[in-house]
Design a protein that fits this description.
Blueprint lengths: L6 H29 L4 H30 L6 E3 L2 E3 L1 H4 L1
Antiparallel strand pairs: 1-2
Amino acid sequence: MGDLFTMETLIALLTLTSLEVVLGIDNVVFLAILTGRLPQERQKLARRIGLGLAMGMRIVLLLCIKWIVGLTDPLFGVFGHEFSGRDLI
């Protein structure tokens, strides 16, 4: 539990939070532009579907990164140094 509130983890949390905010704003702007071309009665549904898919994709990608970080066995070596999935992230 003591490792949870280190400076390194708090900086990582702040970085991830700011990235999520930026990506969320980007998704809203992109969807507003795309759904603006639809008829008025379909815009609200299209926005909800788009935001839901964006959130789902982000969660899937985070789970994939979690899985890759768990790969500690060497994948390949270059000049005598071996690289794992964690090293690549």
